[in-house]
């Protein structure tokens, strides 16, 4: 009898995806810089005339005209409030081997400066956000993630500059054939509803309670296939996130043990059948 090869236990790749503003950090990084660097009046004056990314780019131009440098902006970002338990849990789940990502409608410069200041930048394998760079005049420039001069992304749930659901699709598509991905998505805003709808059974979504994403999910619960766990502050986020990762790991361990038991049983059956004498057919 031919012995079947052992069935490999399917271990999940855990991808934890964070929104940034009002999720990973308590406030909004754009609003923080605008307020702390004295741009509120000009910002409010231009708010209705420009798309958000263009408006933030205009604010950076204003700072440059005032003699403020990118180092001044970085120093302002270093003061952005970050809950200590969120900092702790990010380091913990990275050490556990989770793949950490950020999908945010903030911008690359703001996000990277804040994370680097807190020693967290190296914990994230990918940051999908609006690009930013310092030009040859030393001015910080901010542009939309999805170039508005290219064909639209066609998602009616998301702003024109960024569809977070498309990024979730890309993460899922990067999974190898023999690898199962379990996603945990954390967010707060209306822009986080689209990626929440991309999650499947076995995934988890963690909306911040009383924020727009939580309200959208409560009003459209049947559309969300992922298991929902809401949170309000850093302590709750840490506790729930560690619980979910432990749950996934426990399920994997159970599947692994069952797979090993099945393989062992098949080997014993195969050995027993091979040891039994063959029945001879006696001619009459």
Automatic annotation (TrEMBL):
Could you confirm whether the keyword Hydrolase appears in this record?
A: yes
Q: Does the keyword Transport apply?
A: no
Q: Which domain of life is it from?
A: Eukaryota
Q: Which GO terms describe its molecular function?
A: metal ion binding; phosphatase activity
Q: Which amino acids does the record list as binding Mg(2+)?
A: 19, 21, 188
- What are the Basic and acidic residues biased-composition ranges? 265-275
Q: Which InterPro entries match?
A: HAD-like_sf, HAD_hydro_PyrdxlP_Pase-like, HAD_sf, Pase_PHOSPHO-typ
Instruction: Indicate the residues that form the catalytic site.
Output: 19 (nucleophile), 21 (proton donor)
Going by the UniProt record, its keywords in alphabetical order are: Hydrolase, Magnesium, Metal-binding
Q: Where does substrate bind?
A: 30, 105
Which named protein is this? Uncharacterized protein
Source organism: Hevea brasiliensis (Para rubber tree)
């Amino acid at each position: 009898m031919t012995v079947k090869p052992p069935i490999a236990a399917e271990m999940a790749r855990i991808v934890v995806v964070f929104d940034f503003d009002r999720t990973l950090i308590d406030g909004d990084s754009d609003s923080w810089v605008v307020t702390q660097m004295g741009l509120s009046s000009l910002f409010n004056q231009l708010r209705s005339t420009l798309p958000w990314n263009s408006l933030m780019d205009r604010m950076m131009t204003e700072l440059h005209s005032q003699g403020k440098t990118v180092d001044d902006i970085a120093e302002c970002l270093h003061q952005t409030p970050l809950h200590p338990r969120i900092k702790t849990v990010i380091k913990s789940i990275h050490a556990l081997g989770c793949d950490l990502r950020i999908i945010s409608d903030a911008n690359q410069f703001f996000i990277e400066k804040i994370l680097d200041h807190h020693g967290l930048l190296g914990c994230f394998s990918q940051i999908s956000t609006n690009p930013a760079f310092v030009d040859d005049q030393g001015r910080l420039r901010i542009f939309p993630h999805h170039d508005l001069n290219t064909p639209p992304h066609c998602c009616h749930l998301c702003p024109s500059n960024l569809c977070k659901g498309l990024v979730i699709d890309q993460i899922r598509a990067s999974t190898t054939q023999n690898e199962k991905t379990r996603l945990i998505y954390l967010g707060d805003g209306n822009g986080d509803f689209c990626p929440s709808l991309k999650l499947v059974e076995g995934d988890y979504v963690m909306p911040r309670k009383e924020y727009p994403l939580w309200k959208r999910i409560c009003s459209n619960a049947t559309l969300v296939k992922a298991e929902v766990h809401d949170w309000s502050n850093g302590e709750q986020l840490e506790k729930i996130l560690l619980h979910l990762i432990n749950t996934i790991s426990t399920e994997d361990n159970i599947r692994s043990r069952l797979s090993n038991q099945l393989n062992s049983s098949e080997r014993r059956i195969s050995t027993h059948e091979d040891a039994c004498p063959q029945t001879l057919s006696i001619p009459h």
